[in-house]
Amino acid sequence: TLLVCTATAIMILSTNTFNVANPAGGFISEFVPGMEKGNFTQAAVDSFIPGIGGGFVAIALGFFTFTTVLAYAFYTDSNVGYLFRHNSNGSGYKMAITASRIGIVVMVFISTIMSADVVWNFGSAGVGAMAWFNVIVIILLTKPGIATLRDYEAQKKLGVDPVFVPERIGIKGAELWHKIVARTYANELAALKAKDKTIK
Q1: pLDDT (0 to 100) of residue 176
Q2: Domain boundaries of the chain, sorted by first residue
Q3: What's the pLDDT score for residue 98?
Q4: What are phi and psi of 144, to 5 degrees?
């Protein structure tokens, strides 16, 4: 995302194919009069090689939006799975997963019949909301995050290759992580146990 957005911004800015709107009305700068902001990238590509802007943007957006929708579908499935973690085989879980997937398909369809500006505005609002949720969660995870960092540093001082053992920092109920450690980090765990006899 960082690469795609940076490349897009550089193309638009270096070719002056953009307008700067004035909040009070009108424009501060109007390099491409009458053009909607959704077409700035197409105009930028056209300024390099005339006639291919539309096709280039369509193909690039096709790949970008397809992978983005897949990513958001995965995030949604993961979040629904977490919410129903105590009853992942129940009908409520299956209905929630089905509803979320149908919702994604409906949103994709609706976005094809709306104007580009409306779609971008909804997208911006959604990304902004997601960013705020992430900031809140990061703040809530500050304590375990700092505890994990301190545990990492303590293991380095012991002279072992650090491995995350949830109980060392007071995290309970991480059975899945124990299986991952046993399968993938068995040697590191054995070395840590040799140094720290409190680990079972």
Answers
A1: 81
A2: 1-51, 62-134, 142-195
A3: 92
A4: -65, -30
Place of tokens 């802007």: 53
> What's the rounded mean pLDDT across residues 170-181?
83
Tokens of 26: 């009108």
Question: pTM for the whole thing?
Answer: 0.58
Torsion angle of C-alpha atoms 138, 174, 81, 152, degrees rounded to 10: 30
- Once rounded to an integer, what is the mean pLDDT over residues 104-122? 87
